[in-house]
Amino acid sequence: MVGVSDATGRPPATDGPVAAPGGDSGADPESDRTDDDRARRHRSSAPTDERVGGAASSGTGSVDRSPARTSARLAVALAVVAALWLPTTGGRALGLLGAVLVAAGALRGRRRRVTAGAVALVAGVAAAGLAGAPTLPLVGATLCSLLAWDAGRYGITVGEQLGRGASTTRLELAHVAATAAVGTAAALLGTASFLAVDATTDGVAVVVLLVGVALVLSALR
């Protein structure tokens, strides 16, 4: 008879499956462990992706785009030479102002300051010419002024495109040398034109000098 224990004290037999201890309803423990492992792997991979992304962004932002050192130093040196080459007080004052502007622009990557400094240097040349300065210092100062302008702007461009850490010394020196060769030829042409003219007044001398400046500018550009 069902539900009555026998004389041996064994529990009575029951119909149907026996429930597992602890109230387990039959869920698969292997499936639960697999889901937990997947969740842990997903959580551990997320910080790794963030670290990789952060490293990539920091690597991109670490490139120094400052002006190239060689061109910047040459621009400053040429501007100072141009200012000191001017023989008159007024011309030298304008030249020193221009040299300061060229230095600030070439070292900090400001093209407008480099251009403003070159304009001040050329204005100093014109002032010295009006004061009756000799021709050779005027032509030399003009050439150095325009070379300083070209070197300063070129250094900014090289820094922006290749970065300051790149090895560009030969490239910069080759550019400055080529520009100096063309500029010197234009300056000699302007000087020859001046010597060919019977310049009896300072006004004529300044006009001829400005023609030489225009030739140098066109050669540099």
Automatic annotation (TrEMBL):
Annotated membrane-spanning segments are 74-107, 114-132, 176-197, 203-220
Print the keywords alphabetically.
Membrane, Transmembrane, Transmembrane helix
* InterPro entries named in the record: DUF7519 (IPR055941)
Q: Where is the signal peptide?
A: none
According to the record, the residues making up region (Disordered) are 1-67
Ranges of Basic and acidic residues composition bias in the record: 30-39
* One Pfam family this sequence matches: DUF7519
Q: Where is the composition biased (Low complexity)?
A: 53-62
Q: What is this protein called?
A: Uncharacterized protein
Q: Which organism is it from?
A: Halosimplex carlsbadense 2-9-1
